[in-house]
Amino acid sequence: MADLAPASSPYVLTAGTAVRHGESRWRIIARNAFPFLVVALAWEVTAHLGVFPRKLFPPLEEVAAALVRLTATGVLPHHLLDTLIRLLAGFALAAAAGVAIGFAMGRSRRAEDVFLPLISIGAPIPGLAYAPLFLLWFGLGNMTAVLLVAFVSAFPIVFNTWTGVKAVKEIWVRSAQAMGADDRRLLHHVILPGALPYTLTGLRLGLAQAWRILVGIEMLAAVPWGLGWMIFGAREFLNTDVMLAGVAVIGAVGLALEKLVFQKLERYTVVRWGMMS
Amino acid sequence: MSAASKGAMERATSAYRAGLTLLIAAACYETVARSGVFPAALLPTLPKVASTLWTLLLDGSMLEHAGYTMYRVLFGLALAVAVGLPLGILMGRFRAVENFVLPLASALMPIPSLAWVPVFILWFGLGNTVAILIVFYAALFPMLLNAWSGVRAVNPLWLRAAGAMGADERALFWKVIIPGTSPFIITGLRQAFLRAWIAVVGAEMLAASDWGLGWVIFDAKEFLNADVMLAALAVIGAIGFLFERLVFGSLERATVMRWGMVRSAKG
Hints:
The structure holds 2 protein chains of 2 kinds.
Chain A: H1 10-14, H2 25-49, H3 60-73, H4 75-107, H5 109-122, H6 131-138, H7 142-167, H8 170-178, H9 183-220, H10 227-236, H11 240-271
Helix pairs in contact in A: 3-11, 4-5, 4-7, 4-9, 4-10, 6-7, 7-9, 9-10, 9-11, 10-11
Chain B: H1 3-35, H2 46-58, H3 61-93, H4 95-108, H5 117-124, H6 128-153, H7 156-164, H8 169-206, H9 213-222, H10 226-257
Helix pairs in contact in B: 2-10, 3-4, 3-6, 3-8, 5-6, 6-8, 8-9, 8-10, 9-10
């Protein structure tokens, strides 16, 4: 269950190249761009030499053209929007249920004993393996996709919230009680902030998980719109350029979720409170 | 009451409650399944699932499916280790390699492995190759990044101490860097396996070949065989669990714990 582990994983810490002292901004940009140029050049040469059929291995300008064309006609934004709505709906469900269950498990021994066996049984099964079962139960379409995303991404959230609540120092709780905090204040001012670094890690892992599952389930659940469906549908027509454009957009969204959403959130909460540097 | 016996009692209560939860969950499921609210084909009773699992195990087909899936996972994982481990170590040791590989890895990492399935199907056709490559892609990044951070996390004092005691580059590598990196490498292997296990199920569903646990589940959907699906799910869960606990647990005990690099998590 390493994926559920509370320790912040190295990708989160180190993705992207660290800025080194005494390096000018242009040098950093050049350093980061260089490998992409090399790979792009190799791709172009291979594509133009005609080693593989052009239909299957389009040069990059065709992929870029497909990207521009799809964006201009509004097809790609529509796919993207539907995917994002599904992601948000599923993730919101998972976050609400996951944090609640995790808190209950951390605070009450009884809840822990009830939920832990269920979670330990559910967690080792890869999320997508549930997909056909969900399809059978809830039919093709949106419902299945959202529920599966919620179900699968709830696991890391529960697991980390639970660990976080248990990791709140006993002495903080006791000193707050000694200073006359009632249960509500205790929860609000001590346990909630204390568990937050873990909860945020759980939410971040959950979102990453949701994103991975969503792409897969969109291919399987025959939803009318969605990025996963777009690339899977393009296969039928050998539109490799559309597929690669779709893959690029998927990667960009994944990166944006990580960089823009969670790093900001972390800076405004736990880092500001001095719980994490 | 002494602290030890109190702890033992608490543990016994927990185990009892855990067992009770599972029993109640099973009973609830069974009641719903037997009540006939949902069609029996969609919600088979537990004995039906168990007997299906038993039949499939006896006639060997489930084992064969599991064998194919394991072959794909292990092949892909081995490739990922063969590429990711040396590359990660090189990244940790040489700035130039890091500067070249890290931006590429950061750009490719956010792309879920399943997004490549349609592209790979076009390039390599349906079948084993796609599944193995998807596993490779999924497992590569955890391996690479953990090896890289492991090498960077090796205490520089150890390197200097070994250097001062006259270790040459080779001894330094085998005696200091590799053992020092090993907790990270094992974490990487663990994460890589987990990713690989998720990826292989998805790849088998999408790039339908005739064998494999993912394919069984997906194929059973066509015939409304929910019992076969649940049986295959149980097998998938069991294999994942076994690997996580037995293989990686004992690997950890045989290496990093014995070398005193990490202590066992629960005393």
